[in-house]
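anyone seen this seq b4? input:
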Amino acid sequence: MPRSLLALALCALAAPALAADYVQAPGSSLVFAGTYQRETFTGRFPEFRTTLRFDPADPAAARLEVDIPLASATTGNPDYDGEMRGPAFFDSARFATARYTAQGVRALGGDRYAADGTLALHGVERPVTLTFTWTPGERPVLAGRATVPRLAFNIGVGEWASTSIIPDDIAVSTKVVLAPAP
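predicted toks r here
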């Protein structure tokens, strides 16, 4: 009997770790940055929500979903915010939510990964890669960066389509503090 218990314990130790399900916890942020007439601006999406299934030992089995209410976008400048939420940019009255989804993650070495996902924004779906670091623990942290080509999503129409006013590439960064899913 003791021998079978030992064998069972060894098998349990050798079993692969299972992916854990996580939800976003307080302390998370999703921010964007660009330039407007060569002046840097930053903004954030304070109401975004993230769910993640992830096991660093099996990143290919990962699933990441991020919902971003566009009307929550803010730069802290009421003039910018009204224009950004309006028809020339996010048109949040027609397109209330952006969504990022990724099935599977690539290991880049160490604690670095890449999620080759799809961003659905402004009625357009395009591939966007999120590179991130993973800090394990009781409250793991995913800290990542992506570049979003705004014109591919029809963000900034009319006079705002000019890349001399606002460049095409918008930098997005996130820090997602996670908790085990209930």
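The two ends are 37 Å apart (CA to CA). Residues 19-180 form a domain with the Lipocalin fold (CATH 2.40.128.110). kinda curious what u guys think
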